[in-house]
Amino acid sequence: MMNADCFALMGTWWGWLMPLAFLLLLGLGIAALVKYLFLSHKGDRR
Fold first, then answer.
1. Residue 15 neighbours by CB distance under 10 Å
2. How far is residue 5's CA from residue 8's CA, in Å, rounded to a whole number?
3. Helix axes 2-9, 13-45, angle to 10 degrees
4. At 8, phi and psi to the nearest 5?
5. Which residues contact 10 (CB under 8 A, 6 or more apart)?
6. Transmembrane region positions (predicted)?
């Protein structure tokens, strides 16, 4: 049922906006995590 609804929405802008927004937020979260991990280790060595 939910898969049919998702496929029906793919024809609209909403069906493409949500996955793109999710991937963007996921990418930003991973980038922030990597940046935090590397910068925190460099800061500890000084």
1. 14
2. 5
3. 100
4. -70, -35
5. 16
6. 13-38
Structure tokens at 15: 């069906």
pLDDT single digits (tens) 1-46: 566 676 666 667 677 788 899 999 999 999 999 999 888 766 555 5
* CB-based burial label for 9 (10 Å; 0-12, 13-18, 19+): middle
Chain position carrying tokens 């069906």: 15
Provide CB contacts within 8 A for 6, sequence distance 6+: 15
Please answer whether residues 9 and 15 qualify as being in contact, where contact means their C-beta atoms are separated by less than 8 angstroms.
Answer: yes
Token pair for 10: 């793919």
The backbone torsions φ and ψ at residue 12, rounded to the nearest 5 degrees and listed phi first, read -100, 170
